[in-house]
Amino acid sequence: MTDLTSDTRAGPREFALGVAHTLPLMAGAIPFGLLLGSLAAKAGLSPLEVALMSGLIFAGGSQFLAVELWAHGAAAASIVASVLLVNLRHLLMGATLAPRLRGLPPLRAAVTMFLMTDEVWALAMQRGAALTLPYWFGVGLTLYTVWLASTVGGTFAGALIDDPVAWGLDFTFTALFLCLLVGFWRNVRTTLAPWLASAAVAVAVHALMPDGAWHILLGALSGGAVAAWRGRLRHA
C-alpha cells in the first residue's frame, strides 16, 4: 500500500470522484444536521454559535452531546471533557491511516486529519490502496460544507418544527451508519466476531453508564482488540 503523497493520478478527477461518492451520504447528513441545528436553537444557541461549533468540532455525535449538556446547564469544562471523550475514537481511526500519511508535513497532515469523520474514514477505508489525497479532500470538504450549512439551517428551521424527533429525523444518523457498515462486511469468519464484540461491550457499558459516552470508546476498543487477536491467529 502506497502512501497518499506518492500517488500521481490526476488530482481534479480524484477530487470529483470523492465528491461523487459523498453524495449518497447527504440523504443522512442533511436531516441529521438540521436536527442538530434545531435542537441547538431550542437550547438557546444562536446561528453564529452553531456555525462556530460545527466549523471547529465537525463531529456530529459529540455535538449532539454538547447541545444536550448545554441545555441541562452543564459547566463548560464538563462539556469540553465529554466532547473529547466521545471523539477519542478518532485516535483509533487515525492510527489506521497513519502509514498513508508518511511524507506529509505536520501542518498539512493536521489539516488532513481535521476532516476525518466517521463517514470520511469509512469511505477512505473502502477505497483501500486506491485512496489519494485529492479523493480524501473531495469527500471531506463536501461533508464539511454540507454539515456546516445544514446545522446552521437547522437553527432557523427549528422554529418551524416543534418536535424534530417526531418526524424521525433522529434515526437518520443510525440509518447512515448502518449503510456504511454494510460496506465493511467481508465474510462471517473475519467480520462477525469483531462486530459482535464491539456491539456487546457497547450495549453492556451503556446499560451500566447510560449518562456517559464510555460505551462508544470501549465498544471501539473491544472490536479492534478482537480483530487484532484474530489477525495474529491467522498469521501465527
Question: What would you note in describing this structure?
Answer:
- By secondary structure, the chain is mostly helical.
- It folds into two domains: 11-184, no CATH class; 187-236.
- 72% of the residues lie in helices and 0% in strands.
- It has helices at residues 11-22, 26-42, 47-57, 60-71, 76-86, 89-97, 106-114, 118-127, 133-157, 171-182, 188-208, 214-235.
- The longest helix has 25 residues, at 133-157.
- It is globular and about 55 Å long.
- The model has no long low-confidence stretch (mean pLDDT 79).
- The chain crosses the membrane at residues 15-36, 48-67, 73-92, 135-159, 165-185, 192-208, 214-231.
- Its main location: membrane.
- It is a multi-pass membrane protein.
> How many beta-strand runs?
0
Strand percent estimate: under 5%
Rg, rounded, reads 19 Å
Describe the global form: globular
Largest sheet properties = none
H/I helix tally:
12
What is the helix/strand order?
HHHHHHHHHHHH
Instruction: Provide the number of structural domains.
Output: 2
**Which structural class best describes the helix and strand composition?**
mainly alpha
Provide the residue-averaged pLDDT: 79
Uncertain ranges: none
What is the helix fraction of residues, given as a range?
over 70%
